[in-house]
Write a structure and sequence with these properties.
The chain is of the alpha+beta class and 76 residues long. The protein is 45% helix and 13% strand. It contains three helices and two strands. Strands 1-2 form a two-stranded parallel ribbon. Strand 1, helix 2 and strand 2 form a beta-alpha-beta unit.
């Protein structure tokens, strides 16, 4: 999945660090709530590291949620 913030040189690194932190501290089966999930980029990073976590994304834009659902289909 492409980084939606490609114009910001360190943003992808910051998001990867955040996803790694979540993956490191979460226990198996923990639930993750992502407020303002957009197209699911952060969820993708987390799911790549920990497929055993339950993820729920919330966003105000229905089109973003639809794209996130499509982007995250491989993770269930």
């Amino acid at each position: 999945m492409d980084d939606p913030i490609q114009g910001h040189p360190t943003r992808a690194e910051q998001l990867d660090l955040m996803a790694s932190l979540i993956a490191d501290v979460a226990r198996p089966g923990d639930a993750i709530l992502d407020l303002g999930c957009g197209t699911g980029y952060v969820a993708h990073l987390i799911c790549e590291k920990r497929a055993d976590l339950a993820y729920t994304g919330v966003d105000i834009k229905p089109e973003s949620l639809a794209e996130a659902a499509d982007n995250l289909k491989p993770y269930g």
